[in-house]
Amino acid sequence: MSYANSIATRRSAAPDRVRIAIQKSGRLTDNTLALLARCGYRYSRGRDDLVCFGENMPVDLLLVRDDDIPELVAESVCDLGVVGQNVLQEKNHRLARDGKPSALELRSLRYGHCRLSLAAPRDEPLDCANDLNGKRIATSYPEILRQYLTDIGADAKIVEFSGAVELAPRLGRADLICDLVSSGGTLLANGLVEVLCLMKSEAWLVRAPTNHADPTCRDWMTRLLQRLDGVMQVDESKYIMLHAPRAALEEITALLPGSETPTILPLSHAEDKVALHAVCRENVFWETLENLKKAGASSILVLPVEKMLP
Ligand code: PRP
Ligand code: ZN
User: Fold this and answer.
1) Where are the domains of the chain?
2) Neighbours of ion ligand 2 (CB under 5 A)
3) What is the pTM of this model?
4) Atom of ligand 1 nearest to the CA of 188
5) Which site in 31, 171, 240, 263 is 20 to 30 Å from 257, CA atoms measured?
6) Does domain 114-201 have CATH number 3.40.190.10?
């Protein structure tokens, strides 16, 4: 029985649960679990280390290889998935070519930043894209690379590797590699240098092309998404409080980054001044505070926002 099938079988045993496919161990795992925890999700880990069972929501996590996530979600074996854009694009390309539905993008999650790049041995660096003609490029991203080579009209040979791509030049199997670079440590350790970035990537939340059959599950998915938006919004939001001269209110309000209508409160014993409270949905930098002060604001306080429901 295939991997997807074995999970599908588990699914039919629990049709009233939401399934989310996440990377078992790797770049995205810790951040994904932390994000779900901030959405109020509590779980216990299954004995086989393949599933996390939700304790306070009918939501389970499937711990799988990241490369399997797009297909698991595209085939509706899982309802949601968290996967790097690079893996998503690569697999969706292939699914589309085979006439199969793709996993659908829901939200970028702003972590797991990396890039898919061409890298060459340090002692044989490349000058420009023209140099690619006749070269052998090792990669586990053949679809994205093929598309890129077609776009620039380069005639290079793609050598497919499923792992340890960085070893290919040393093994004499390729002249270049096309692989993920995050810190650059792997390239450095293998005597390779990055020569060209094909795409930037980060973690994405994806969804199945079909809706969950169970209305309670659909409701939980909506709630989870709403909480996720709230968590992501909170990271950038600040609550700002200050005293403002009535005369400068308009100027001061205009300086507040990404804020909705602020709350204006009277101050005792100060007719010409008011207190202003506002939620800023963008980062508040020192420059903003300095400009507010110049405009006449005083007693400026900036506080973190803990939870928010948009
Ligand atoms: C990528 C890539 C390198 C490493 C680069 O693998 O294949 O091995 O990460 O990261 P660095 O620049 O920080 O050294 P990934 O973690 O995606 O593993 P996988 O391909 O096995 O999923
Ligand atoms: Zn992988």
Assistant:
1) 3-112+203-233, 114-201, 238-304
2) 66-67
3) 0.84
4) 14
5) 31
6) yes
